[in-house]
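Entry type: protein chain
Record version: 2
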Amino acid sequence: MARTPAILVVICLAVLLAGCHGARETEDTAFITALGIDRAEDGKVKFTYTIEIPRALGYSGGGTPAAVDGPAVTTVIVAPSVAEARNLLTSTMSRYSDASHLKAILIGEDLARAGIGDVIAHFTRFREYRDTIFVFVVGGTAENFIHKNIPIVDYLPSKWYESMVLSSTENNYSTRTDVHALYLGLKDPGRAACATYLAVNPLTGRDQPSGTRSPGTRTDPYIAGGIPRSGTGNPAEVAGLAVFAADRLVGVLDTTEVRTLAILRDRYRNNRFLVDDPLQPGKIIHLMLRNGAKPDIDATLVDGRMSIRVDVFLEAELISNPSGINYEKGEKRKLLEERVSALVTRDIADFISHTQKLGSDVFGFGRFLRAHFITYDKFVQADAESLYPAAAVHVSVTTSLRRSGLMWRTTPYKNPAAGQEGR
């Protein structure tokens, strides 16, 4: 009899802690995997939902039902807020709408320029939304992008967003941003917020660089929507980075500037880098470039003016040398290293100059001022964001050619004319 109360307690705990009271079957749930947000009339907001269809993934032959003609459906709702849009969405479908698997939030450019603080606040507090949800800014409207984004290789829209973001480390022409990183950028007094940039490409093959090519390289700068390509593939693409001042979009960094940001962040890992041959104009040298050490960066206040110092060390590997000039050793090797250092130095200076004009310290040079203040409150009062546009900048880059690929000594190609003379 003495054990009866303990047994009853165990039984009650087993019932209460089972965790199945709020369970829902998959076939009773509509999983939202992408959400587009645009400005609408009368101060309202347009929400475009992508809802994936589980039975479309498991269907196998026998004639495709009319209702299963794709992996996902879209629904557009106009409402004053995210919460009210979800209420209205529930009234349009027989299943419970679940956002716990939301993969991507897409913000239209017009809304981003007006301010995203009110919208993002909902996703940072409610438990249904994870802080790892990818955040994008879309050139044009998010609604149009979602309708045009029809993945072919990945098939699922959610998989496309994840694959495109994670593959950005292959070229560093874009970077990953999520709800947590965006929220910190909106709150941090030492740096500005940013978001991955998306757009729809017209697939005409037309070359639309976002700016002029840097002297000494063959790489044109692009942002999404301007890459010269054609064909029958998915017109959606990821390239560039949207940057904010406070919570308003103020500009877009191109692929060259995003690559430079990766170098400053010590995230540049074995990426291809093209330079003009220093000794044979018209030829292109291809290198694999990476951060050889964490950049040495500091910021100080001199007579009330912010001063930024940047020292970068890079390691390079020679992977293509069409000219046949031996750059592996001696003075020629030093000449190639100096050419790379000069190009990266100019890229960093141009990146800082552009973001200063935008008034957006997207890298976060302002955070390096914290060590020069006794308290955090005094650092906040200094307003590093207002000091950044007029900051003095000193950049130094050193490059070391550590490897030469599968060859240790380059020799020139045969001269065709000389070969004919010998016959």
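Comment: Confidence is low (pLDDT under 50) at residues 59-68, 419-423.
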